[in-house]
């Protein structure tokens, strides 16, 4: 049995239902079992009410008399086995007859075990223990998360179903708190998945502890708090709260959970700090079924994350609309390629010293048939979450390479082509082969291809990432770190990995050079790039003063609205030809 549930002797908190028309028999059974430590009993004398009582009380085991006046045990057993909810319920049949036909019939109907009447006390205790052991083992496999030992999604949904039924009957509320660890992926990437697993176990312990310390009511009292916490998947946990009086009670619990997780975790001799985003949905206010309640709690969590994480968020109509919109977006995104709705814009990268165009960055554009233009920051995360980025990214790569070859043929020689590669795309083992294939299909010069990745991509399993990077280098393409300075990574990877270029994040340019701090950061990044022999590109350059500043620092390339906004391929060609005409009239005429 698992840690969390191993409190005292395992089965004493099992609830035992006895269905017998003779109250005296039940009293004897109860006394015997009480002497052996069992505590929870439900006695049903009227067999016509038995099935309903089982659905309502959800006992762990039923001791069922076969011969009863109004309704016999056979028909009860039959009804239980026909219902998916009670199909596997443990039922020990009490039978006074030694007749093998009766036993056979009960067995056919799915009895778990038998006890002969009059009941032998030690046999009763033994059979009950065996049945509960088997049940616990089966439950463990089917209903518990193997890592944290908490209930899994299946069990949680089952309990929630039950919680909702009780709330309906008693006219109370149920809340679902959906808890996601912020940036959990980074822990996995930094310390490895085993450390990530250890963290999940510790988090589950703290959640149980925090919940135990609150005055939540659950069947079995505070000690059984873990029953209402589940690990849904990955870094997501859910908590069900029942018998709620008001929403300030929920807020207090959410706060308690958050503060319980605020203390650092000791994982592999390192202190790890985490925060969580909590989404909360209520029955009956926000949803009237288990499914929608879960969905809405999930949507509230997503909203809390978007709001900046480390907070809790109650579900609302606004969140519903946002979730709906995201779903619609995902839906339309699925057909974006076949419908030909994507295109690439190109933004020039300019040599800081000479003003020459050195290359272009390909930037994705989506023209939605009804919504019009949708910016990349809105749809790329959706494409990443849904896995569609792999396909879209390959389309981008192929298009950009084709364009580069066409430009070469038109006389725009030696322009590099920068292509953004999302983390998910890059981590795919097949990525180097895809790059290789696209290059050979299009005939592009590999050395003109610059793959832009973000710092986050480089964190994690060093050997694997290094291997991927070196494969790309063997192909001949260049590697650039986009949005440099915004990641949380250590700088040591700049030395360890074969990087060619750094792109200073736009956020540092905004107040440069006026703001001394921003200017100092830009200066430091350029100096560092210099000393590591890396090319350095400043993006988001909009003003003359910024250009001057960057020239003085000897920054290699500049990209930004100051020179040109991203534009369709034809405009980009015209832009280049104009420049060539100005700077090198001979070449432009020939083009
Ligand atoms: P990024 O790769 O850092 O691209 C630079 C972004 O800054 C572009 O936004 C560009 O239009 C914008 N920008 C350039 N110069 C200026 C300027 O002077 N001022 C201002 N305010 N903005 C400037 P865009 O095109 O909206 O793309 C946003 C992000 O979307 C990109 O950031 C990149 O991370 C992502 N993205 C774009 N295309 C792709 C793609 O094909 N694949 C992937 N995975 N991501 C892409
Ligand atoms: Mg980029
Ligand atoms: Mg960037």
Strand content: 15-25%
- List low-confidence stretches: 1-9, 584-591
Mean of all residue-level pLDDT scores: 90
Q: First CA to last CA: what distance?
A: 77 Å
By DSSP, the count of extended strands is 22
Strand order of the largest sheet: 13-14-16-17-18-19-20-21
Global shape: elongated
Structural class: alpha/beta
Bound ligand species = ligand C2E, magnesium ion
Largest sheet: 8 strands, mixed, barrel
Description:
With 591 residues, this protein is of the alpha/beta class. It is 47% helix and 21% strand. The chain has an eight-stranded mixed beta barrel, surrounded by four helices. Helix 7 packs across helix 8 and helix 8 packs across helix 9 (247-262). The longest helix has 23 residues, at 121-143. The structure holds ligand C2E and magnesium ion (2 copies). Ligand C2E is lined by residues 347, 363-364, 375-377, 380, 393, 396, 420, 422, 452, 482-483, 506, 539-542, 559-561, 566.
Layout: helices, strands, pairs:
Blueprint: E1 15-19, H1 23-35, E2 40-44, H2 50-57, E3 61-65, H3 73-82, E4 90-95, H4 100-108, E5 113-116, H5 121-143, H6 153-170, E6 173-181, H7 184-191, H8 193-213, E7 229-233, E8 236-244, H9 247-262, E9 265-267, E10 270-272, E11 276-283, H10 290-306, E12 311-314, H11 317-333, E13 342-351, E14 357-368, E15 372-374, H12 376-385, H13 389-409, E16 416-420, H14 423-427, H15 431-442, E17 449-454, H16 462-475, E18 478-484, H17 492-496, E19 501-504, H18 506-509, H19 516-531, E20 535-539, H20 544-553, E21 557-559, E22 567-568, H21 569-583, H22 585-590
Parallel strand pairs: 1-2, 1-3, 3-4, 4-5, 11-12, 14-16, 16-17, 17-18, 18-19, 19-20, 20-21
Antiparallel strand pairs: 6-8, 6-11, 7-8, 9-10, 13-14, 13-21, 13-22, 14-15
Bound molecules: ligand C2E and magnesium ion (2 copies).
